[in-house]
Amino acid sequence: MVESPKFRRWFAVVAFFTVLAGDAWRYSVSWVGFTIIALAISATAIALLFRGRRRWTFNRLPYPMLVFVALVVVSIVWSDYPPWTAAAALTTIMTVGTATYFAINLSQAALLWALGTALRIILAGSLLFELFVATFIRHPILPFWTNYTGLHVYAADYWSRDLLFKGQQIQGIMGNSNLLGFVALLGLIVFTLQLCSHAVIRGWGIFWLVVAATCILLTRSATVTVALVVVAVVAVVLLAIRRARSRTGRNAVYAAAGGLAIAAIVGILVFQRQVLELLGKSDSLTGRTGIWSSVANLASQRPVAGWGWISYWVPFISPFDNSKYHFVIHGVQYLQAHDAWLDVLFQLGVVGLVIFVAFALSTLVRAWIAAVTGPEDGPIDGARRGLRRSPLTLLPVLLLVALLVQSLTESRLLIEYGMFLLALFAVSTKRELLEPPAR
Fold first, then answer.
1. Alpha helix (H) ranges present in 220-279?
2. Is the backbone peptide bond immediately before 319 cis, with ω within 30 degrees of 0?
3. In angstroms, rounded to a whole number, what is the distance separating the alpha carbons of residues 338 and 137?
């Protein structure tokens, strides 16, 4: 049964739902319940991965990914919090191992279907959840299994704040408007590609695009807004490159895109205040600059190899419980650097940052090559276009671009869906490069 395509696809749906909406499990069945579910998924995936050893070898997996995971484990030796680094290293191994299993055992079409199904469940579930709270409960609700007696409850503590009919940001089953908005952006990308590849009925495809767009509008996340613009621009550039009939035409597109990028960066730097006002952000980016300053201070104390891998910060251990660092904003203690690259520098030093950059950049480059050429294309010379490219080849690069934009203000690239999708595409793009599918 476990070898059947049907099992793999539905197993993938469960796994994708869990990494994308882990908070939905944590708020409903507690951290203990979530841990049991996550362990069951990872143990099953990794066991099946090694059961199918004939399909892969370590030397054909992405080297930067393997070196990064190895460094995460080795950092236990110099970690300032060894037991927690060991636990975080195990979590990272589980995430990367599970992603590797799906990268090896799912086709592009099956991957798109499973990811699309999980996203539909999350987005539809979030809207129905908020509608139920607004219609029947009519007041904010807290996560189950958490005792808040005697504690001051902050807005960020609520699972839902009953804001659907009040014109403010909803949180959905994820309990976080920024995360729900980003998942909706992933849905917008996936649903569009499914529609363009005729993988869904046109009417239903348009319906789910509307659902994703509605979630983005109801969450109004500044990060998601920026990521949406960047993804749209990248998609246009990719389509222009794919339509170019000659090498000269492609080079012209690259030159134009490069000029546009430089102009955009200069414009943002010159009109920084106006851009922040347009996005509804203060100069401190909702307190992020204070966090960045504190994390940079910590990173400078151990610049070479960092303090030790921790991924998701543990609030009650040093240095995260030190009041001199700005990790508490409006009474809420933040458990990440709100910048994945700064977080890696703090945890693994310059060595870890260089390796992680190589991990992410090599994956992006391979995804870009796959999107531009397409594994199903015939040979392309300088004067002729190849065969028509499948929209499916755009999936890795567009999702990676979204993740990389988010990584500038969130550290999710290091945990759950961020690390999962990065590892998934790292393995799948390398396999496609080494073993292109039969034409």
1. 222-243, 247-270, 272-278
2. yes
3. 33
The two three-digit tokens of residue 146, written as one number: 């958490």
Residue 5 has pLDDT above 60, yes or no: yes
From CA 234, how far away is CA 228, in angstroms rounded? 10
Residues 380, 372: Cα–Cα separation, whole Å: 11
Percent helix, strand, coil in the chain (nearest 5)?
70, 0, 30
Specify whether the CB–CB gap between 187 and 215 falls below 8 A: yes
Tokens describing residue 79 = 């970690």
- CB proximity list for 2: less than 8 A, separation 6 or greater: 48
Query: How many angstroms separate the CA atoms of 154 and 147, rounded?
Result: 14
Of 15, 1, 71, which is closest to residue 349 (Cα–Cα)? 71
CB atoms within 10 A of CB 201: 10
Q: Which amino acid is at 3?
A: E
Prediction pTM value: 0.91
Q: For residue range 315-337, what is the model confidence (pLDDT) as tens digits?
A: 888 888 766 566 666 666 778 88
* Alpha-carbon gap, residue 402 to 232, rounded angstroms: 10
